[in-house]
Design goal:
two-stranded antiparallel ribbon; binds zinc ion
């Protein structure tokens, strides 16, 4: 995960701008009158997210329209929750939407244009940390919208967290996560090396945060994202190392591990080089010209 400063956007102002040209006028008035509820929901969100307790926002679920009825017919008029959800899709994501500048601003904050959830993919979408289908009042709340790649957005799925442990990391609120090294690589060999990635939080990490790190890694399927990216890096590295002495290989791997750990401590690159630097068989095998 890539930590990001919270967006400098006011939730009420964003919402009111988005709905300011809704049609017909009666719908616009109805949506406008929800400004206080949206602002209150955003304030409750901020308080819960600061404590890592987004699972406690049950009271906001399916508000203000209530849970959808299973027996609803297709031709029934759309309820207010539907219009809140389309405030995001039609008035914020849409190129003509009044809220599109906010969408662009949130997306532009992605570091190097990368996904904040996996730290690798291209950030070409915003992900709802709490799904808009369950929390319509938070559909355009800036704190709830994080730059993400499509793979992470799809993998995360639209489920509301039910416990403190079963929450993915939040780029705006879990900003000190990189004080811990929790991503590890395992390189297997000897012979042709292969690498796999695992979430392995250190004992010093608070237990709930450690559980969330594991949940983040598993639910976003980060092992699948990182493995294919690391495999060719490992192959090309292994070929180039055969030209070096064991001491030079050790030095090179340690330097790369340090540089990547400083750059992005829980990236696959940092984890890969840390694992290689600590692997005596790898240094031995590749210096011998395997
Ligand atoms: Zn991603």
């Amino acid at each position: 995960m890539l930590p990001l400063p919270r967006p400098a956007l006011d939730a009420r102002a964003v919402y009111l701008t988005c709905v300011s040209v809704a049609r017909p006028a009666s719908l616009r008035t109805e949506l406008h009158q929800l400004g206080d509820q949206v602002a209150n929901a955003a304030a409750a969100y901020e308080e819960a997210a600061t404590k890592g307790e987004l699972h406690t926002l049950d009271a906001l679920q399916h508000q203000p329209g209530g849970k959808p009825s299973r027996t609803a017919k297709k031709d029934e008029p759309k309820g207010i929750n539907y219009h809140l959800k389309t405030t995001y899709t039609s008035r914020m994501v849409s190129a003509e939407g009044k809220g599109r500048p906010f969408y662009n601003q949130l997306l532009a904050a992605a570091p190097d244009g990368r996904c904040t959830l996996c730290g690798q993919g291209l950030a070409d979408t915003l992900d709802h940390q709490l799904p808009k289908d369950v929390y319509p009042l938070l559909a355009v709340t800036p704190d709830n919208l994080v730059p993400a790649c499509r793979t992470c957005n799809t993998n995360k799925r639209d489920e509301a967290p039910v416990t403190a442990e079963e929450q993915t990391l939040h780029p705006y609120f879990d900003t000190d996560i990189d004080e811990y090294i929790w991503l590890v690589a395992r390189v297997t060999g000897p012979g042709l090396p292969a690498v796999t990635f695992h979430a392995d939080p250190p004992p010093s990490m608070p237990p709930v945060l450690a559980a969330r790190v594991r949940h983040h890694f598993t639910s976003l399927q980060l092992a699948r994202t990182y493995g294919p990216q690391a495999a060719p890096e490992l192959r090309t590295l292994s070929r180039s190392l055969t030209r070096l002495t064991p001491a030079a290989i050790s030095e090179h791997l340690n330097e790369k591990a340090e540089d990547w750990t400083e750059e992005q401590p829980n990236s696959w690159q940092a984890a890969l080089y840390r694992a290689l630097a600590a692997s005596s068989w790898y240094v031995r095998d590749f210096s011998s010209g395997l």
